[in-house]
Amino acid sequence: MSLRSAVVTGLGHCLPERIVTNDDLAARLDTSDEWIRTRTGIRQRHIVDTGTSTSDLAVGAGRRALAAAGLTSVGVVIVATTTPDHPCPATAPVVATRLGLVEAPAFDVNAVCSGFLYALATADSMLTSGLYDTALVIGADIFSSFIDPDDRSTAFLFGDGAGAMVLRAGEPGEAGSVLAVELGSDGEMENLILVEDAKSPYTMQGQTVYRHAVARMASSTRSILERVGWSVADVDHFVGHQANQRILDAVAGRLKMDPACVVSNLATVGNTAAASIPIALSEASDEGRLRTGDRVVLAAFGGGATWGAAALTWP
Ligand code: UT7
């Protein structure tokens, strides 16, 4: 067992000001508020104005998380994103510099909607190994840059945003500790979610993604519970990737989990890809839903295909 654990010490999120409601979409697409709400639980999403980049949102979320943690420097910065400011270089170094984290090592992770869990696992291993003492992990995406706004099969699903978490090295078992993370991928499912090149829009095999998302998020959750020795009834909060309310409900149903544990901000934020888990955590924390010592499970499924789960206690 490691002599150190990674402990959550600050959260923050940043959403663009502009809200696009289902009715706004229905005004120009062959869709309706009723169809979108009943199929996904989404009522609105936040969308950036032209000129706002992923790094802008990441800096906003990172600044709030650093302030919450009371830190002005960190050992390492990791940005999970599928929509970097540029194909090259990575977005994390500019985010670190804009946050005043001078010369901190900084890099991107791309695991699409599972990206935050991949970044969290990376930070966790860097802190527990003793490589660094603090880390800033950000999930940030602007999927509106990918989506064909006229494609009614995908345009309603996504919103833009960023969420951030600061972690520090602490004592194993301390409240706020990351207890376990596990990750997986299957490149056979490459085509389920695809942006072929810069000129091609995002495509998604919705129903197949739906089935795999439910199956993988449920199996990863079962497996992480086994690793930390919790039963489903021990879980106080389940924060799944916010892709579709029906996916979250189906995962909870498979696990026989109390629906009251399921954290959801889909109605107001939609699917924000790598940002969805840290935004949901940050909002739940702001609302006072999470209490010290609460048992929290995170789970995600995304393009790749990639998936993962994590167990932690609340600081
Ligand atoms: O973040 C990770 C990636 N994404 C996901 O996790 C998303 C996973 N998939 C889903 O959440 C669901 O598959 C969707 C919400 C995307 C779609 O829901 P669905 O229940 O699978 O709908 P569908 O694609 O099977 O379409 C059902 C019907 C079709 O009409 P017919 O063929 O039954 O006449 C579609 O043409 O609904 C139609 N439809 C729409 N109707 C109104 C598709 N999109 C729309 C729309 N408005 N926006």
Helix content: 25-40%
Broad structural category: alpha/beta
pLDDT under 50 segments (min length 5)?
Answer: none
Q: Provide the gyration radius in Å.
A: 18 Å
Give the mean pLDDT.
Answer: 97
Q: What small molecules accompany the polymer chains?
A: oxa(dethia)-CoA
Residue fraction in strands: 15-25%
Largest sheet: 5 strands, mixed
Shape: globular
Treating each run of at least 4 consecutive H or I residues as one helix, how many helices?
Answer: 9
Distance between the termini: 21 Å
Q: Please tally the β strands and state the result.
A: 13
Name of the CATH class of the largest domain: Alpha Beta
The CATH architecture of the largest domain would be: 3-Layer(aba) Sandwich
